[in-house]
Amino acid sequence: MTTITSPGVNNGVDVTALLGAREALTAAPEAARFQWRARCEWVYGTHARTTIQDFSGLGAEQSHRTAFTVDTDHPEIFASEDNAMTPVEMVLAGLAGCLTAGVAAVATNRGVQLRSVTASLEGDMDIQGILGIDPDVRNGYSGIRVRYEIDADADRADLEAIVAQSQKRSAVFDIVTNPTNVTVELA
Amino acid sequence: MTTITSPGVNNGVDVTALLGAREALTAAPEAARFQWRARCEWVYGTHARTTIQDFSGLGAEQSHRTAFTVDTDHPEIFASEDNAMTPVEMVLAGLAGCLTAGVAAVATNRGVQLRSVTASLEGDMDIQGILGIDPDVRNGYSGIRVRYEIDADADRADLEAIVAQSQKRSAVFDIVTNPTNVTVELA
């Protein structure tokens, strides 16, 4: 169990530890350099399986408690077997998970007890892009909407501010909204 | 089982169906407009669970064969319970799954039999961004590297061309490397 840190508020986020980490890393910024890793194996057709376990940060090699595995595939209407969510849906899951963790952390820091938090996401994509029909249509999303329903001991203005602060500090929101350099090569 | 479409090549990708879809959607581009959706529930602390089932496309409501669920969390060194991969690692899984499906599709279209395809991904992130230590450090990745090992009936130049074509048509590669508008709001 995660330590309860705000008097009367238990969202399961240890804000004291996070504020301590911020102080420690301000003094030792090289320890803030993390590397996240993934290993993806092709299964069959458009079905792939990605395993995640080790990473580095705080100046050392780190490991998750266990290996985590997720699958991706394409749906039957794309003539695939639909063994798993699509990769673009997985990006929505990453975005939702990042913003939702942020909502819990910011709410805790502000002394707001959460009862439930639900995000509904929609991403628009014109598949003329990935099919190579129209070069003016991008491959990815033309836009994504995230809508939160939050049941908590706070008024609407406080909840809006919590959601806004989560967005401001979200790694995946930044990844999706801003360009990131990606190199893809054959070993 | 997916239909085998290239003589002597079976990677499980029905290229004939994909080429047919391209032809059909060229004639009816409004059917190419898809909407992908996700619903994320906060569990506890930084732990969240995202469920994906329905989407729209081809001018109709669509559904996966079943609901797919993935969890995200933060690791113990962030004072969390490490119940699942982090959201930023999930983005790597989406990127890997998208590029790997593309490798299988392009290889099939080019008559290349695959035996194994493995991608290793690394993403660099300075967590001074998400911790709010240094406003000049971005929240997301400073860069991502994807490295493929492919065992297939093809020479190195052909495999490099397959990987390059997959990248060119990848939805998630586009999402990560180019900006996408995301709105986050309270219902």
Q: Which strand order do you get reading across the main beta sheet of chain A?
A: 1-2-3
The SS-based structural class of chain A is: alpha+beta
Largest sheet of chain A: 3 strands, antiparallel
- State Rg of chain A: 19 Å
In quaternary terms, these chains amount to: homodimer
Uncertain runs of chain A are: none
Strand tally of chain A = 6
Please give the count of helices of chain A. 4
Task: Describe the model.
2 copies of one chain form a homodimer. The first copy, chain A, is an alpha+beta fold and 187 residues long. In chain A, the strands form 2 sheets. A 3-stranded antiparallel sheet of chain A has the order 1-2-3, with no helix packed on it. In chain A, strands 4-5 form a two-stranded antiparallel sheet. In chain A, helix 2 crosses helix 3 and helix 2 packs across helix 4. The longest helix of chain A is centred in the middle third of the chain and has 23 residues. Chain A is globular and about 55 Å long. The interface between A and B is large, with 131 and 131 residues. Strand 6 of chain A pairs parallel with strand 5 of chain B.
